[in-house]
Protein: Methylthioribose-1-phosphate isomerase
Organism: Bondarzewia mesenterica
Amino acid sequence: MATLASIRTSPNKIEIINQLLLPHTTEWLQIDTIEQAHDAIKTMKIRGAPAIASLAALTFSQYLSRALKADPRPPFLSSPEALKSQVTLLVDFLYTARPTAVNLGAATRRISRKLQASIDAGNDVLSMAQDLVEEGNKVADEDVGRNKEMAKCGGEWLVKVVKSKGGSGEGLNVLTVCNTGSLATSGYGTALGLITYLHETGKLDRAYFTQTAPYHQGSRLTALELQTLKIPSTMIVDTMVGSLFQHHDIHAVAVGADRIARNGDTANKIGTYNAAVLAARHKIPFIVVAPITTVDLDLDDGSKIPIEHRPPLEACIVRGALYPPSLDAQGNKQQAAVMITPEGLNGIYNPSFDVTPAELISAIVTEKGVAVKGADGKFHLSGIV
Ligand code: MRU
């Protein structure tokens, strides 16, 4: 099955697909420095919580690996203390690129933990740095395998739930929000992985997805992924979720997550909460699919999740190819950003994420299995992290 990728690596080279130009132009951008990685994440050339964590970790590994080969070596490789302060500086800087996606924080914490373990073991500074290179690469490598596990667990769980209500467990229709596939991860995806799994096992009738304004992860990216995977799909405008639930047999909503608090409250792309409220009204299972690194046990509930607000201008413009299509000198479809508001409009509210309360969530699927609420009506995520 053909798939898309957000990141490709070869020896000494990291490239990302520029998601600002998809689906009309495929442009690979080489990422050579920590600053470039930070900028690509902040400007959303790459996005999706697991993908940005992977890019941060890979770029960090590349930085250290180049430092180890440099002649002369940079001063921060002269002592464990100097290495620690440089690593702290870099990982803290990378984590500031997007504040809601905790996977980025989990990746940077993992690197810091590895460093501390290496210091405690009394390793010499060069082998410490080498350990960190490997740890950074592992963050990205481990993503695809766990996505497949989550997809299978979540898919099988949904089939069981549908059967328990008297359904056949086949011909399932699943709505998703935003983009959670290969472009948002290192491969296969989270919620879109679950949908892909249902398709591969012959259980899916159709995937529905919202356009996901204002960045349009749905219409630009999920549409392209579903088309590439040849999964039957229908796009809806964000405001049509209620209508869809009233007029179509939807068996589940499956979404990804940027951060899940200890009690299960989940931050995900803006519009997720709306879909959850409507799903509850229509008694449709609402499933969150995310790796364990998305669970933040330090936060008791969703009220503490930092919500990123994007620049107001991003809510005033729509990007895309000119229509009817016209080609530039390189044969690429010409693209434009079009303003859809009067110039100088003030008072624009543009949070990138919202928080869906745990009470509206039926299941949280991670690589460790499917978490559902206990007899007390609450998730107990500390038991699985
Ligand atoms: O702003 P984005 O595009 O990075 O937001 C992405 C989402 O909200 C995804 O649903 C989430 O990161 C999970 S991706 C597997």
